[in-house]
Target: Aryl-alcohol dehydrogenase-like predicted oxidoreductase
Amino acid sequence: MRYRLMGQTGLRVSELFLGAMKFGTPEGGSPPEECRRIVDLYDDAGGNVVDTANAYGDGRSETILGELLERRRERFVLATKYTISRDSTDPNAAGNHRKSLVHALEASLRRLRTDYVDVYWVHMWDRHTPLEETMRALDDVVRAGKVLYVGISDAPAWVVSRANTLAEWRGWAPFVGLQVPYNLLARDIERELLPMAEAFGMTVAAWGPLAHGRLSGRLEGATGAPTDGHAVTLALREVADEVGATPAQVAIAWTRAASRAVHPILGARTAEQLKDGLGALDVVLTHDARARLEAATDFTVGFPGDFIAKSSPWVFGEASGRLDGR
Model:
């Protein structure tokens, strides 16, 4: 396992993050004893980022992690989130406003058995709360020492850009990380979010690198019909055979290869699944292999990206093709 810097900070984070979404989930989740095996395996492999949220398993994920990390807390970059409702009958129990943040954070700290979290994520954009309120409230908990760094998940690029510009102007803690879905079947972030994150120097935590199991290499669903992404699955299996890896490892390796900013989140339910995912660290994809995988996705950037790329030779002249830019 190698390490990179988290956004524009000095915090060292491992190439692969561990997702604890299924820790303690009643249906289809990981029981506490399996959670321990997963965390131990990840720790032994050199991983140091564990990502959870106050809503995962109604808080059970945080509770289990609090128990598992209690005696090794400083070894891990512990990340959790807030936004999702804690009480559907209470309009103030959700959202990104100050009251929601304070109550959610205090409850998370108790469950995690710690007095601070390393990364606190806004779980989703809340269009009803001014960005100024959210960013100032986050800066307050950073200054109080309860949070070291902040990030945002599942938000439009213009929201993140405006938030970080506000933070820069007003001396507040900026978002150092962006958490978004990214895999061969969901490449939407390549349009705006990934270029924005790279421009701001943000770390991109990519959830769903296996598209919830659809990129694990299985060609058929329970009904015997081809699964979503049949062409991609075929390409994955072909490349996997060539490099001596599993389709899942190739899918994760592709996500990693897309940008140095990207850190896939491995959301394993079992230690065996995590072991397979960690094998992606040894997979090196050639340019040809990546091109074949991407060709199978039938993805286009769309306007304005495709239009700008197509028009650039005419707009900037023939000599622009010999310019070595940034």
Observations:
- The chain has one domain: 3-298.
